[in-house]
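Weekly puzzle thread! Below is a chain. First person to post its structure in token form gets bragging rights.
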Amino acid sequence: MLMMGKLGTMIHTGRFLLRRFSEPPPTVTPSRVSFHRYYSSKFTSLVSPRVSPFSSLFRLSALSSSSSATPNTRVQVDSTEHEVVIALGSNIGNRMNNFREALRLMKRYGIHLTRHSCLYETAPVHVTDQPRFLNAAVRGVTKLPPHELLTVLKTIERDMGRTDGIRYGPRPLDLDILFYGKMRIASDKLIIPHERLWERSFVLAPLVDLLGTAVDNDTVAHWHSLALHPGGIHQAWERLGGESLVGEDGIQRVLPIGDELWDFTSRTHVMGILNLTPDSFSDGGQFQSLENAVSRVREMISEGADIIDIGAQSTRPMATRISSQEELERLLPVLEAVRGMPEMEGKLISIDTFNSEVASEAISKGADILNDVSAGALDSNMHKVVAESGVPYMAMHMRGDPCTMQNEENLQYSDVCKDVASELYTRVRDAEISGIPAWRVMIDPGIGFSKRVEHNLDVITDIPKIREEMAKRSIGVSHAPILIGPSRKRFLGDICGRPEAVDRDAATVASVTAGILGGANIIRVHNVKDNADAAKVCDAMLRRRGRSKG
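Winning reply:
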């Protein structure tokens, strides 16, 4: 198609609550509001700062051979980078795959993505007889001027199967420019911000995720100034209902796992521990045989486990690091056997490793989640492996490694919850920049890792403080599922006078109860039966209070 750009340049483009990503095409007639919808009326162009008249044209290199996207699109490029926010929506086909491909193509077209919102499954508006939408937003930088960016996004939409259809109707992909640098734009092709942006909860929820409660730069300050409220975007969201809308009003925050959407806020999920090591602090050596391991998994599933976390490398204090080969020899036979168990239908498998080679092999053999106690700090290739795999990533807080984590220098905190939140957020940001979207991240504050007794107690009892501290820099990351893993750990034995790990189950129940009531979404435990019961009681209490988790 032909489109007139800003300067008149001609531009040519040739038991989990799980739900399926894929939705069948509906039988409907008439798109959700597109924030860069074409308007028949003319607007005076209001763009500041101006796009440089000396912008150059360049030819984009061919996309991958597997993509149907136009390989030789000519677009105008400015010499200055601008920070942008782009909203995504989809309700036809494999919605998550549509998002993945859209992100890949955006990167190919010169949009460098820096932040991702949470994922939201939302009810359709106006035309309700159609599948539910998946909504998100991304933040990035680009040298494409605004109208050229619009051209690129429209090209991506078309190549993903978007056609002119019913207004407010179904579509495989919807890409909308919410903000472009410090510009306010009104032209016959593009309006930023759209006049109805502030009315749309399915857009404001992911938009807010891309921000922090603290304003991080002048561009973000400008975005807040465009809101219709003195309190900026945050106040606009709160006036619609804010967090009270999530779980209500047709909006559900979800996390993608495989081809499903995981509703992680509805109840506490139980992760059962399966150690295949000879030297784990609690049950080392008990489940090294395949028969014993499978039997233990079957037992944990019957007791209420939602996730089985399999580890073949001990992370107890002073544990020796084994080779990748030895870790895989312990892990893969059990993983393959567990994956094939009929009892695992509807359950998830997590792999506890900080080794990227092991992670890659395990994911290829069917692991659903990668649980990394170092959050990538002990293997520089881990984030790349997880980014390419598409699996959710559990990032845990730890200083040093298992041999050094309890050294005196690693036990110094000014405020343990604030420090843990800040350090863990840094690791999550590294993961995000490496290509792991925030909507695939789960966090673990690392109880028992680089912490004294009092530090562990503070973390368990003040999870809201960790979320609040993270929210200063990223509201989206602050909403990530939080896992706590105090099970049978030494600090419980120190408090209760129980030197043997197996005697700390009652103390574990007490600690996970406090954590769940404080907002933990997942508990990682050895004794599944008793802790699953505790989780059910806690969830019932939270429902009575009318509180959601995350």
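Puzzle host: Confirmed. Bonus trivia for everyone else. The chain is about 35% helix and 20% strand.
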